[in-house]
Structures are given as structure tokens and as C-alpha cells.
Amino acid sequence: MAHALTPQPHLDVRAIDRAAGVLLGAAVGDALGVPYEFQPRLGEDQQPRMIGGGLGPYEPGEYSDDTQMQVCIAQVAATGADLRTPESLDAIAANFHRWLSDGATDVGSQTRSVLDAAHRTPGAPGAALIDAARRFTAGNDQAAGNGSLMRTGIVALTHLGDPAAMAEAAIAVSALTHPDADCADACVLWCSGIRTAVLHGTFDGVRAGLDLLPAERRGVWAERLDEAEANLPHHFANNGWVVHALQAAWSAIIRTAVPELVPAQGSFPALHLRRALEAAVRAGKDTDTVAAIAGALLGARWGCSGIPLAWEQAVHGWPGHSAVDLVRLAVLTARGGSDDAVGWPSAPRLAAASHGSSFAIPHPHDPGLILGNMALTRGTEPVAVDAVVSLCRVGSGPILLGADVEHVRVWLVDSQGDNANLHFVLDQAAREVLRLRRAGKRVLLHCAAGQSRTPAVAALYSHLATGTDSATALHDLRRVLTGGWQLHAHPEMHNAVHELTAHDTLGGTSSGSRGAAKAGREAGQASPLRVGKLGQLGRVGRLDDGSAEQPLEELGGDAEQKREFLKGKWAASRVRGMLLGLALGDTLGTARGKLPASGPLQAGVSTQLACFTAEGTIRALVRGDHKGICHPPSVVWHTYCRWAALQGIEAERMRRRWAGGSTDNVWPDGWLAQVPVLAERRGSAPATVAALSKDEQGTVDRPTTTSRGCHALTRTLPVAVVAAAHGSDQTVRWAREIAALTHGDTAAQSAAAHAAVLVAHCLTSTPGMQDPQSGKQSQVRHALTGGIQALRDSDRGLTADDHDRLATALRQADNQPADHGCLARLAPDATAPSALLGGLYAAASFPGRADFGAALRFAAGAPDGDSVACVTGALLGAAHGADALPIDLVSRHELAWVIDTLARDLVAQLAERPSGTEYTPGWDSHWWDRYPGW
Fold first, then answer.
1. CB 426 within 8 A of CB 24
2. Exposed (0-12), middle (13-18) or buried (19+): which is 479, by Cβ within 10 Å?
3. 859 phi and psi, to 5 degrees?
4. What secondary structure does DSSP assign to 356-385, as a single string?
5. pLDDT tens digits, residue range 49-102?
6. What is the three-class DSSP state of 931?
7. Among 692, 710, 708, 417, which Cα is nearest to 586's?
8. Helix/strand/coil for 340
9. What is the DSSP letter of 503?
């Protein structure tokens, strides 16, 4: 039967944005649901993550068969074909067969049965598939699976101007594998919802689609939609059935509130997409399919610009597609198979607009961020950056020819009224720049001319990264962007910059590290799990085995007593350098200096434990601020118990101990509990595990093990930041007690305390210092010499032998540097004293800022290379700061962002007390939720 194809209607800029979100929305929902498919259902307080795994198993961000099959349809729809014709159905069927043999990672049982039967049937692929599907349905009373609804979203874009034709296409494509009436009806309703969302930006089309169903079936579907709106998604537990799948998706969408627009508080209406997809995943059972179904409609409503950039960056799947490919297929389909006048979205590279010559100008507040225009990306000269953030359309190919850089595409339109999610997108873009810079990457930020969108996002980045107010940031940017300034011509965008950085209603400003630390900023970053305070949850407010708590004054004193270290603008860089150096040393040492040429670098167990020590230190300081007294080692002990529970070590006993056996209490709590890498086994820490398996924590006077292993030292190093801020005397005691929690040998406890003091001296050292013994210019050697001398006064337990061994290691680095034999003699085993002496020797042998990588590789050659390299990296990173670390390694380390966040938050806690004190309010009302003080 011949069909008349109605031309596609003209779509304005916002409608194109919404059409671009259909396939991408389905894919991000699919990838978000993949890890939880047929797993225990997530609770309302549990945050779904794109962590991969599932039935594939899939990579993080990889979509499954739900999107793979929709891509098969999209490849035909994107040509402008009428999907009702036999030729189109043949092409789709052929794509399904190719997918099954070439790339299917998971296949529904009904789909596989039909495809297998059709493969053995002669004739045209479409007709054979339809015949096999009919035979399967006729002989099976459970043939109404969700397999056609999950892939129907793209079909809605083929007939945007003709709802009746759209319904016919939805039925025809469903019938290739799922001809059951319920399946056909569900596809019609969902396509109707997507069509209306694209054209008008509402969810009204789902109910309007009832008029497209056979009259006798409208009533039952109206009741089904009513039922979905009255119940939570998990009420529809049989979501492998198409009816429950649609009801669960519709419930997740319609029952999730749309946030108000309050930019300074990180509240944006587009967050509805993220929250509704999370609700869809919490439905349980066939989580990826329910979320993919919901994602297609949510993407159609909120657009490509409403999808979190972090999800866009992560999503990918068969046949080698990323977000840009999914957007291309959807836009071509909505446009009837044609590109626009400049070749978008198909052209690999779009011509640079005629906005003058190219330019590359360092950001006035961060020279590692380069501001440019599109012409810069089209030049023949190389652009020395590691990442590019594009705020304009740039084509589907690589942004810089001949350069492998991370590329973030932001949907931001340079005209008034054409950005449906303007505040959300600006905030997202600035946070992506912040993420990339925190990863140590040199970033190019550009739009077409570099005169409006670029300075808008650059100003927001200044606010997030340095605390600069928006007016000052814009003034400074206008001063350096001398080639042109057009932001004043876009008052909507100009005002949005100020609105995003305005004072919030909680009594504080969202500036600098304050804005970056806000737990409520869901836009683009996974927000930490929120829990109530101790009293609100009815938890037992003890620290543990009756250990004496210490007065607040001993935990650091008032702000005016803080040392100059915290006042230096380089403090955060030094702390970041120390923790990242530790992590790189751990990774390089574990690999014996031989890292893979590409791919992520895995963290070691020392790094995992050090992360928890840093977090526990912050929590101890928070407790001291609010409770007046605190015993920090006991707070850190609780921290290690949470690490053990995540690792599956005595998990149930730990829960009974810390959460009182109640399933209502969220435990393990704190945001680190949501980081998947910290739950993975990354090496052994036998003494730590043995100690955590006991009922009581170890103390200096009552040890629970006799170990002197290296982890007593490597995991304790983060307390050096407190020593740098407040002096060494109290911190030496902290370090000894924290080491004693799991390692009873006094030599291990001494090594941990001495390492903390040495790292603290590196943190506070000044470039250009002279070594007082040799007279040579050496910041590192001067700091280490001063630290060894300071131990005489700060550590009452220091023995003459301890001092002599440290001094000898430093002297040997001067007389016989970088000698492998000497290193092996100083650090012969996997003990804490060996790690300290070996790390001291390696750092002093390579004291130069440019020698960081060489120092780590040398340290990795020690008999226990990971512990020695941990200490080496911490010492050198503390002295030189994060900028001295090898960018190629930092950018690949899987915990770099976690470490960076902890470092900044530790400095913020010491310098600013974000959560306030017992008597004074703080500027971050969610800080206690991030770092509960217990």
C-alpha cells in the first residue's frame, strides 16, 4: 500500500534542541539503568550511577540493546525514509540481523526468537520478520514484552507533521518483532508523547495519543495512565511486560517534581530529566529498559541541552557511537534526512564564521584555561591543549586535526530566547571546565567568535574556581578580550551569569570553593548522598571504645591562629600535589614503573585508605567545630570501618555496629561511599583488615596487632595538612594514634608521625630556599632538613637512632643520589620505616620540580616500590604543588577527581569552616551532610 509522506514541519532552534534529545535521552537512561538490571531495587536515598557492569558486562556509560536496536531504526529514519514502506522495514530488519550477529550485547528472549526464526525464512527481510513475529505471538500468551516500546522513540521524529502517519509507523515498526495489540498501543502513545514534546515542549502528547488508538482500547489505556500517575514506579514490578514498562516510565516522569529556577542555589527546571531518570532506575527489575523508555520522552521535553554534560561525555555504544552520533541521527530524522545550510549535523568540520582572525588568550585568573574562537580550531598551527570545550556547533569530526584531545560539546545558542535551559547549560559548561582543570588538563574554551558565550562561561568558571564575583570576572575578561565583546548584546545571557553567582537565600554566597562544594549542585556533577545529623537519625553519638575526646582548642584553634600556610594562594595546589603525588606513586610503584600506554590508571589500596583518612580528618574537624570536643583517631577509625564495609569486609557486622542494625539509617554514609572505585579490591592490606575485623580499635597503649607494615604510614599522610596549618606537636600525636588503630609496632607509629612532619614542612616550604647543610638551592632538601630538626621538639618519642637514620638517608641522597643499591639498603622491605627512609632518599635525590616523574620511577624500583613511591610522591607533590605532576598520568588516574575534591575540601575546612561552629552559622548548609562529624 502506497503512503503519502507529509513534509516535516519547520522546527525552530528550541524544537531542534528537543529533537536532538530524543535518542540521546534514551541512551543516557539506558546506560544509567544498565548496572542495576535485575539487581536488588535501589532505595529512594540511593543514587544511580553510570558505573557499567550489568548483564553485558558494560563499560561505564555504555548503552545496551535498548538503544542499539533504536540505532538500527535511526540509521534508516535519518535518510528521510517513510518507515511504513516495505523498503524501509526491509532495511530496519536487515539492520536488526546485522546487529544480532555483529554487536548485540544483550537480547530480549522474544526478540532473539523472532530474529532467529526470520533468519531461516526465505523472502524479503521485513516480511520474513513480520511473519516470524506473528507466528511467535500466536503461539505465546506472553508475547507483549517491552522490546518494541524501548526502541520506538526515534519513530516519532519521522512524522512530526502527521500524527496519523506517525501512529501507523509506530505500529509497523513494532510489528517487526512485537505485533501484540498492547505493544502497538504503547508505541503509539509514547510516540505521540515524544512528538508533542518536540513540537510544543510539554508532556501532554501521551494522553493526547489516546485518540490515535482504536476506540475500544482507549478506555483501558486511560485507566492505565491514571494508575501510573497514582503510584510510584516500583509499583509496576512486572516491567518486562510492555504495559508495566510504560506505566513505570510514565510514573517516574509525571510524579517527579519539576524544580523551580533558582540559579544561585543550583535549582534548574531541566534537572527534572535527571531526577526522573533516577526514579525510573529505582523502579527495579528491567531498569535499563524503563529508563531508556523514559529517557526518550524526557529528552524530547527538555532537549539535548537538558541532559547533564557528564552523561553526554560518558554515553557510548554499538556500533561505535557517542553522543554526537546519536544527536546527528535524531536531528537528520527530524529534518527529513537533510542537513542545514552549513552542513550540520553531518559535516565533520564546519567552516569558521567570519569573525576575524584566530586568537588564543590565557584566562586572566587561570593561565591554564585558553580563551579562543572557532577560527583557532580551524587553523593549521597546533593548539597546545589537552581538552576543548566548544560552546557552538563544530561538526561531527575531531575538533583539532592531528590532536587527540578530550572534547566537550555544549548546546548553547548565541541569540536571545533560543536557549530553553540557559542557566543550566551555562552552569554545566563552567563545571566541565572546572573538572578538566582539576584533572590537570590545559583547556581551550571557545565559541564561534569568542565574544559572548566564551566570556559568559569563563566568568562563571572564575567564580567557581577562585571565588571571583561575576562583575569583577566580566570586567577582567573584557580587559583581555580586546578583539571584540558582544555579551552586552545578549542581556539574557549576561543576566544569567549574575543570577548564577548571586547571594543565595541561606545566608551565604555561592562563591569560590563555596559554590564548588555545594552538595545541592546536581547540575552536571553527581551530588553526594545526603543524610541527617546524628540526633535526627537517632544514632548513637559515641565515637567508639570510650576514647577520650579532646577540646576544640587542641584541634586547631581559632581562625586568627591559623598559620600563614592557609593564607597562601598556593595552599590548595600544595595539598592537591601531596595527595595526587601519593596516588601516582602508589600506582606507579604497584606497576613497578611500567604503566600501560593508554587507558585509566588504577588506584592502589594505599590511595583508597589515604582518601578515607583525608575524609575522616575533615569529619573530625567538623565534629570539633560543632561539638566542642573530639578524638580524631576515633573518627578516622569509623572512616576505615566504612572503607571495610564497602570492600565487603565484615560488612554486616559493621552495619550492626555503626547503624544499630537499622536499615533506615544510611550507612556507610558520606559521599565517598558513593564512589565505585573505593569499593573495588585494589591490593591487600592484611594488618589493616585484621585490625578492622576486631571489636575494638587499636591504641598506642592497647595494640590489636603487632604489625609494622607500610600502610600505617601511607594511609596516615593526609594528616600532614593539619600539621602544616596548625603546627606539628598535636599532629604527631594524631599520626601515632591513627597508625596505632591498625599497626601495633611502635616503629610503624613513629614512621607515620615523622612522615607527617616531613610532608608538612614540604607543604610550607618556599621556592628558592637553600639547604642549610650543603648551601645548595633546594626547596625540597631545605624542607626535609628543617623537618628532621623540628622532630626533636615536636615528637617526644623520637629516639637518637630515629633521628640518625633520617639524617643519614638525607645525607646519602646528597653524596650518592639515585643509587638503586643505596635505595635497596635503606628500604629493604614492606614496612613503614623502610617506606619513610626510601621515600626520603628518593625525594632528596630528585629535588627539582621537573624531576617528578623520574623520582617516582626511581622510587618504584625499591623492593616495596608502591610504599616508597607513595612517600616520594607525597613529599615532592607537597613541595612543588599539583602543577608539577605529570599531566599525562594525573589525567588518567581513576581517583584524581576524588583526591582533588578531598584536597580542596580539607583546605576549605581548615581555613573557612564551611559548616560553621556550635555557635556560628556556616556558608554551606550541606557540609555536614558531606562530612558528618562522627
1. no
2. exposed
3. -60, -35
4. -S--EEEETTEEEEEEEEHHHHTSSS----
5. 999 998 878 999 999 999 999 999 999 999 999 999 999 999 999 999 999 998
6. coil
7. 710
8. coil
9. B
Those residues with Cβ within 8 angstroms of residue 840's Cβ, 6 or more apart along the chain or in another chain:
758, 784, 806, 809, 810, 813, 871, 875
Find all residues with CB under 8 Å of 340, minimum gap 6, and list them.
none
Which pLDDT score, from 0 to 100, does residue 523 have?
A: 38
> Sign of torsion, CA 251 255 257 258?
positive
pTM for the full model?
Answer: 0.59
Give residue 664's pLDDT.
Answer: 58
Region for 303 from its dihedrals, namely left if φ exceeds 0, alpha if ψ lies in -120 to 50, beta otherwise: left
| Type of residue numbered 189 | L
Separation of first and last alpha carbons in the chain: 72
State the DSSP code for 348: S
SS3 content of the chain, % helix, strand, coil (to 5): 55, 5, 40
Neighbours of 482 (CB within 10 A): 9
pLDDT for res 793: 84
H or E segment at 479? helix 470-480
Whole-number pLDDT of residue 356:
66
Which position has the grid cell 611502635? 746
Q: By CB neighbour count within 10 A (0-12 exposed, 13-18 middle, 19+ buried), where does 701 fall?
A: exposed
Residues β-bridged to residue 363: 366
- Strand duo 550-551 + 629-630: pairing: antiparallel
Distance between CA atoms of 693 and 641, rounded to whole angstroms? 9
For residue 314, the one-letter residue type is A
Cα–Cα dist 594/513, whole Å: 36
How many angstroms separate the CA atoms of 28 and 849, rounded? Answer: 42
C-alpha–C-alpha distance, residues 222 and 226, integer Å: 6
**Torsion sign (Cα): 352, 356, 357, 361:** negative
Which pLDDT score, from 0 to 100, does residue 663 have? 54
DSSP letters, 213-245, are S-HHHHHHHHHHHHHHHHS-GGG---TTBHHHH
Helix H or strand E segment including 550: strand 550-551
For residues 14 and 18, give the distance between their C-alpha atoms in angstroms, rounded to a whole number. Answer: 6
Q: What is the CA radius of gyration of the chain?
A: 30
Which amino acid is residue 32, in one-letter code?
L
Q: Using CA atoms of 220, 223, 229, 232 in order, give the dihedral in degrees to the nearest 10.
A: -70
Q: Which residues contact 805 (CB under 8 A, 6 or more apart)?
A: 833, 837
183 torsion bin: left (phi>0), alpha (psi -120 to 50), beta (else): alpha
Cell of 405: 584531545
According to DSSP, residue 55 is labeled T
User: With contact defined as beta carbons under 8 Å apart, do 420 and 412 qualify?
Assistant: no
Tell me if residue 58 falls in helix, strand or coil.
strand
The label of the residue with cell 616508597 reads 868
Q: Say how far apart CA 849 and CA 568 lie, in whole Å.
A: 19
8 Å CB contact between 557 and 700: no
DSSP state of 451: S
CA 753 from centre of chain:
34
> What are 451-462's pLDDT values in tens digits?
999 999 999 999
Query: What's the CA gap between 866 and 472, in Å, rounded?
Result: 45
Distance CA 757, CA 762 (A): 9
Give long-range contacts, CB 8 A cutoff, 24+ apart: 782-788: 783/758, 783/879, 784/758, 784/810, 784/840, 784/843, 784/844, 784/875, 785/810, 786/761, 787/757, 787/758, 787/760, 787/761, 787/762, 788/758
What is the 8-class DSSP label of residue 727? -
319 preceded by a cis bond (ω within 30 of 0): yes
Half-sphere exposure of 415 (CA within 13 A, CB side): 4
Q: Which three cell numbers stand for residue 622?
A: 567538623
Residues 358, 372: contact at Cβ < 8 Å? Answer: yes
Q: Answer whether 35's CB lies under 8 Å from 63's CB.
A: no
Residue with cell 520478520: 129
Rounded CA-CA distance 852/840 in Å is 14
Looking up cell 637553600 gives: 770
Asked if pLDDT for residue 531 goes beyond 60, the answer is no
